[in-house]
Amino acid sequence: MKKLLVTGAAGFIGSNFVRYMLDKYDDYEITVFDALTYAGHLENLEDVKDDPRFKFIKGDIRKAEDVEEPVKNSDIVINFAAESHVDRSIADAENTMNTNVMGVLTLCEAARRHDIERFVQISTDEVYGDIDEGFSKETDPLSPNSPYSAGKTGGELLARSYYRTYGLPVIVTRGSNTYGPYQQPEKLVPLFVSNAMEGKSLPVYGDGMQIRDWLHVMDHCSGVDCALHKGEPGGIYNIGGGNQRPNIEIIKIILEVTGKDESLIKHVADRPGHDRRYALDASKLLGMGWQRTHDFETAMRDTVRWYMDNTAWWKKIKESEENKEFADKWYANRK
Ligand SMILES: NC(=O)c1ccc[n+]([C@@H]2O[C@H](COP(=O)([O-])OP(=O)(O)OC[C@H]3O[C@@H](n4cnc5c(N)ncnc54)[C@H](O)[C@@H]3O)[C@@H](O)[C@H]2O)c1
User: Fold this and answer.
1) Which of 114, 147, 263, 301 has the fewest CB atoms inside 10 Å of its own CB, making it the most exposed?
2) In angstroms, what is the span from residue 100 Cα to ligand 1's centroid?
3) How confident is the model at residue 7, as a pLDDT?
4) Mutate to test the pocket of ligand 1, among 7, 12, 31, 215 (most ligand atoms within 8 A of CB)
5) Model confidence at 325, in pLDDT bands (50, 70, 90)?
6) Helix, coil or strand: residue 334
7) What number does the ligand 1 atom closest to the CA of 10 have?
8) Does 10 contact ligand 1 (Cβ within 6 A)?
9) Phi/psi at 41 (nearest 5 deg)?
10) CA 249, 254, 255, 256 torsion: positive or negative?
11) 186: Cβ below 6 Å to ligand 1?
């Protein structure tokens, strides 16, 4: 049995990744390590928690004393843990940097001391910054524009430096805009589905024409799996959806599936520094045998329906004091 430590896996993509790995492989024992911040929920792992190959440890990647034993007891580390919301990084850049940069440093330090076989740092297409045309390749310069993406850039560069300097077998993945079940209801799809169901307005940033490369969460997970098993130490792998759409198009799908009309759309002041367009060239990973298996038109509608069917899940999170306070303050400033 290989021992896999998956940090940040009580969140959106990490919890789906654990489900994906337990389902696909018999020979992995998975320890989820998560601080259970406002974005981490054990409910996301409810269906796998009784699997004998699954274990959970509550801990903070910024704390060497929390990280030491779990890393020591692992063969492979996959780091999903991050402050992942751009809006929150604008409101509190320091907190974001502490996790997205210093947390990665703490993990890398433990990983190199304990001869970890593979260290996968989950990064993002946002490290390239926005591009007017074409597609970002792994060799393109990095030009992050938000504290979130600057922190992710710092984290992945630090991880790669541990490959060059100490020989830590680091792999970096840069995934694009991901959708699917269990996403924190402050992000576009679950926020707008839940607002629509509650009869609240859908606060669209600016003209809503920001283009994202939409990737289903299970395709993101299979991309990480491919990079983990077929990637080279020191390698960087784009995981792109091959599917560029403006935000407003996603919003119209949400309105169609929830049966609401466009009168709910409310254009609000754009996010400061908002990137206009991301698009990834995923040919490197596709050339290694990775395949996307989710058709956007079907999978996006299924995702909307998942949130419609799981109101108790998002209601509890959305109505927590912390989440309500942040959302109220943030949108009060976007009028
Ligand atoms: N969501 C996307 O579209 C997307 C796209 C590309 C890359 N990514 C990257 O994928 C990863 C996961 O993203 P997500 O959308 O699932 O995020 P998320 O916010 O849903 O989950 C983050 C998880 O990390 C945990 N965490 C935060 N700080 C921690 C700390 N200091 N110590 C331990 N755990 C901590 C949280 O409790 C939570 O469970 C992130 O690294 C993100 O940058 C996300």
Assistant:
1) 263
2) 9
3) 98
4) 12
5) confident
6) coil
7) 39
8) yes
9) -140, 125
10) positive
11) no
Residue 191 Cα to ligand 1 middle (Å): 17
Mean per-residue pLDDT over the chain, rounded: 96
Q: Are residues 299 and 231 in the same domain?
A: no
Asked if residues 239 and 220 have their Cβ atoms less than 8 Å apart, the reply is: yes
Ligand 1 site, residue 151, Cβ cutoff 6 A? no
Q: Per-residue confidence at 324, pLDDT binned at 50, 70, 90?
A: confident
What's the count of helices (H) and strands (E) in the chain, helices before strands?
A: 13, 13
For 11-66, what is each residue's pLDDT tens digit?
999 999 999 999 999 999 999 999 999 999 999 999 999 999 999 999 999 999 99
The Å distance, Cα 172 to ligand 1 centre, comes to 15
Answer yes or no: is pLDDT of 335 > 80: no
Helix (H) or strand (E) holding 19: helix 12-24
Q: Does 15 sit in the ligand 1 pocket, CB within 6 Å?
A: no
Tell me, what's the pLDDT at 329? 85
Between 331 and 265, the more confident residue is 265
**Containing H/E element for 229?**
helix 217-230
Q: Domain count of the chain?
A: 2
171 in helix, strand or coil?
strand
Which tens digit of pLDDT belongs to each residue from 186-230? 999 999 999 999 999 999 999 999 999 999 999 999 999 999 999
* Cα 260 to ligand 1 centre (Å): 31
Tell me which residue range forms the domain holding 75. 2-178+216-239
Ligand 1 pocket, 12 CB below 6 A? yes
Q: Are residues 78 and 46 in the same domain?
A: yes
124 in contact with ligand 1, CB cutoff 6 A: yes
- Check whether residue 234 and residue 252 sit in a common domain: no
Annotated catalytic sites, by residue?
125-126, 148
Q: What number of other Cβ atoms are within 10 A of residue 17's Cβ?
A: 27
